[in-house]
Amino acid sequence: MSAAEQRFTAMMSGHGPAVLGYLSRRTEPAQDAADLMAEVFVVAWRRLAEVPAAPDETRAWLIGAARLVLANHRRGTVRRHRLANRLRLHLRPEPAPDPATDLVRDALARLGDDDRELLTLIGWEDLTATQAAAVLGITPAAVRKRLERARSRLREQLEPSPAPR
């Protein structure tokens, strides 16, 4: 192990709990604190030459880095929430319940996963056969043939059951 690796390992084991404590008291949920601590130590590794050697100064430097990482995290969270709110405004509202839609959903649920995925890619996601082929990792010709079969199986699922005699 190199001298830099030894120093970093000692820094992490000696100051990791303090950094984690600092972040834990300022984040929710607790898993975020561990992720942020990892980011702090990535910064410390990249800037190891700038980290003071004296233990008290090292701790202060790491807490300062944690403060900056936390600020970046909070800004990112705010941006994500703003984006989610803007997207929500642009999304179409959920359509009113429709018995025909329920029948199709039930019929799709009775199909195999491959048939259902192909039909929804083409029908709901509005992909072309070529685009669906790229998503599924098959050729467009295979998509067209599988789509023909899947539509046939869907029609069978949608046909009313014969009345008992």
Automatic annotation (TrEMBL):
> What InterPro entries does the database record attribute to this sequence?
RNA_pol_sigma-70-like (IPR039425), RNA_pol_sigma-70_dom (IPR014284), RNA_pol_sigma70_r2 (IPR007627), RNA_pol_sigma70_r4_t2 (IPR013249), RNA_pol_sigma_r2 (IPR013325), RNA_pol_sigma_r3/r4-like (IPR013324), WH-like_DNA-bd_sf (IPR036388)
Which one of the record's GO molecular function terms can you name? DNA binding
- Where the record annotates domain RNA polymerase sigma-70 region, the positions are 14-77
- Give start and end of each RNA polymerase sigma factor 70 region 4 type domain: 103-154
For the keyword Transcription regulation, the answer is yes
Q: Which GO terms describe its biological process?
A: DNA-templated transcription initiation
Q: Which Pfam families match?
A: Sigma70_r2, Sigma70_r4_2
Q: Which UniProt keywords apply?
A: DNA-directed RNA polymerase, Sigma factor, Transcription, Transcription regulation
Q: May I have one GO cellular component term?
A: DNA-directed RNA polymerase complex
Its family remark reads: Belongs to the sigma-70 factor family. ECF subfamily.
> What is the protein name stated in its UniProt record?
DNA-directed RNA polymerase sigma-70 factor
